[in-house]
Design goal:
By secondary structure, the protein is an all-alpha fold. The protein contains two helices and no strands. The longest helix is centred in the first third of the chain and has 16 residues. It starts with 5 loop residues before the first helix and ends in a 5-residue tail after the last helix. The mean pLDDT is 87.
Length: 41
Amino acid sequence: MNEENPLKAALDALGAGVTTFGRRRHGVLFTELREAFPGLA
């Protein structure tokens, strides 16, 4: 993780989440993120 660049850190975490959720399930992750953080959607 690159703590000096918060955007890179966030994108790295998102990429790890997509990998963890599994192939072709990124839509499920994005739906959960939208529900958890409605102000960012």
